[in-house]
Specification:
The structure is a homodimer of 401-residue chains. With 401 residues, chain A is α/β, with parallel strands linked by helices. Chain A is built from eleven helices and 20 strands. Chains A and B meet through α1, α2 and α3 of A and α1, α2 and α3 of B.
Chain lengths: 401, 401
């Protein structure tokens, strides 16, 4: 029988009733003739609750121990779902990440999957069992429990599908991928299909439906991933490899990110060594700089604007204060209230003029743009938050999003 | 440095404050110059909560999955205690049962420890770390998570102490072993020391302070076990091998069990085959029969009384109803409200007349006795519950308990 990997997120298993419903859905899929591997997250807000307990004890809990702690959340879910399946006559067996030989590399609380023992899964399937897997967790070379970072259950599901060479279905509390987050733009369209590249750019630009690393992995191993509502009765969105010439419109989707801040550096000497020095000092603090734009030099001085996560703003400022003392022309301004708007479309590869068209739209609507960056399939703009609604509506109208 | 195994039960780690207190206590012991292996139970009522969730899904949840579920309780405790220790500057590392190579045999939810990998413990100790171990759990030969049954954390602690050849301290919410449960007899004395044999008989006669299997294991490997209050500032009771001649009194302690029922069979043919058949049918239902007494035959018919757990009474009755049809002389009476009183003392081995003295005491106080059984160091009586208080006081007075 064909195998499908399904993943149910925390909101799909947040209480006993919902776990029973997931069991019923799995029973139906089994009846339709599929063998199933089911990856589950921790129940509802369990992970937050566990983290909160640790933080009541320490502001900097050992990450090794955080992994031991957090891994219990998924372990509870797999046992309860397995009990629920067996109760309705569907043979099921649960496995923790370590039990399934999900070997990981890298650091505690943000490990990466290195290997999965597919024989354990196939043995259980051959015995007619639904295989229930704890998402988000694995074991490192020292036999320590590890976790994959928030949203890591998506990655577990895609990695297993890649290993088994089968499709993956991610069930969540939204019914698919939309051109724009429907909470921001209620008349947004649901996409039937989206390419890996576009989904990656959307996910990394603030659209939180699916974990970025899961999409990367799906692209590498060419795993078709369906994102759908956990009730299973509404058609979701398929993420897969797409031929760009099949696309009709230049822009597939629009993402909004309100978690970034912007810093503008003025009076920076036009010397690549100095500029590199500033950014490398910031990078050493593990601050992820996103958009950067630099003006042309005037009197051998340039201005540089860049965005960074809001939470990291104060740390970055401490670096910049040092340069103020060393370079007499240097000053900086911070903007902790900005909106990053990204338009994404694989069609941009073949259709030119998207950037200029976008400028036109923004100009027509009196929307000031602070930074622009472009990649092959994405253009991002930093605008003022008060222009966000107007900008979304103008772009959505123009590109029929 | 000498090693000590300490065990903290669920009430000692029931909330974050108590976990911090346990960490402080461990830090003090470390300062006093001990290396420590600390076994912890699940926080407070966690195990009950987990079992309740499973029972909301199924009346007969798969035992394999119950073990996966219940094992999470101790895993949460070990990580939080390790975080708490590291927070106050005491290097610590946590291990689940499977991580520590606690190999088990037997059935899910009531497995027995077969082997422990002491090298993992010693390696961590040699690195200067306090080793935190999840009690109650292990892993079987199929790499499945197993648990040891309620109270199994005591067994984990004693098994590790046996393996390391070191003493074991069980910290709990009572400050030691008393001659009589102080809730039943407030002026009971705390014992400084008690023999393994006596503790085993006390534990199996209804004194619930420490897990029977832990005492058995301690006796086999001659591990001295201290039972004390989790605040650590009150001297507890040491359970160890005792030379009976050192004892002064015949009776060390008195245990009361109100969880048993009694059945009296009348008109049973004095035929060992029939009697064996009745008890083997009851045993097949996994009903644990405790005390048995049989009258001398009258007209080739005997009466037999026995005790069994109250919960099993209705099952046993279903068996007896069959015999009523087959044997015309046969009838039975049930008594679901009885008190089992056991007096225990290693001194009985050398001092005769304890049983007759006890009869005297009970007779003087007008206490009716339904069954008596004796072992080398224990005499148990079934009496009416309304006589319980009077009987305890009379025995305690006579033997200075």
């Amino acid at each position: 029988m064909p195998i499908i990997v399904q993943k149910y997120g925390g909101s799909s298993v947040e209480n006993i009733e919902k776990i029973k419903n997931v069991a019923k859905r799995i029973a139906e899929c089994k009846k339709e003739g599929f063998d199933l591997v089911v990856v589950v997250s921790a129940m509802g807000k369990t992970t937050d609750y566990l983290i909160d307990m640790a933080h009541q004890i320490s502001d900097t809990p050992k990450k090794r121990e955080m992994d031991v702690l957090m891994a219990t959340g998924e372990q509870v879910s797999i046992s309860l779902l397995s009990i629920a399946l067996n109760e309705i006559g569907v043979a099921a067996i649960s496995f923790t990440g370590p039990q399934l030989g999900i070997k990981t590399e890298g650091y505690h609380t943000k490990s990466r999957i290195a290997e999965i023992n597919k024989n354990i899964i196939l043995d259980a399937i051959n015995k007619g069992k639904v295989v229930i897997v704890a998402g988000f967790q694995g074991v490192n070379e020292k036999n320590e429990i590890t976790t994959l970072g928030r949203g890591g259950s998506d990655t577990t599901a895609v990695a297993i599908a890649a290993k088994l060479g089968c499709p993956c279905e991610i069930y969540t509390d939204v019914d698919g991928i939309y051109t724009i987050d429907p909470r921001l733009y209620p008349s947004a369209r649901k996409l039937e299909v989206i390419s890996y590249e576009e989904m990656l750019e959307l996910a990394s630009s603030g659209a939180g439906v699916i974990h970025t690393r899961a999409v990367e992995l799906a692209e590498i191993y060419n795993v078709p991933v369906t994102v759908a509502l956990n009730t299973g009765n509404i058609k979701g969105t398929i993420i897969k490899e797409l031929d760009e010439t099949m696309e009709k419109t230049a822009i597939t989707g629009l993402a909004v990110d309100n978690n970034e801040a912007m810093i503008t550096l003025n009076g920076v000497p036009h010397d690549i060594k100095i500029i590199a020095d500033i950014f490398s000092k910031i990078a050493k603090l593990d601050i992820n700089i996103d958009m950067i734009s630099q003006t042309t030099p005037v009197n051998k001085l340039v201005s540089i604007s860049f965005t960074l996560p809001k939470n990291d703003l104060s740390q970055a400022i401490s670096i910049l204060e040092q340069y103020k003392k060393e370079i007499f022309t240097f000053s900086y301004e911070t903007f902790d209230n900005i909106t990053k708007l990204s338009v994404i479309g694989i069609g941009m590869k073949s259709q030119s003029g998207v950037a200029s068209k976008m400028f036109e739209i923004l100009a027509e609507n009196d929307i000031a743009v602070h930074i622009i960056t472009t990649s092959e399939i994405k253009i991002s703009y930093v605008i003022n938050p008060e222009d966000q609604k107007k900008a979304i509506e103008a772009v959505a109208r123009e590109y029929n999003l």
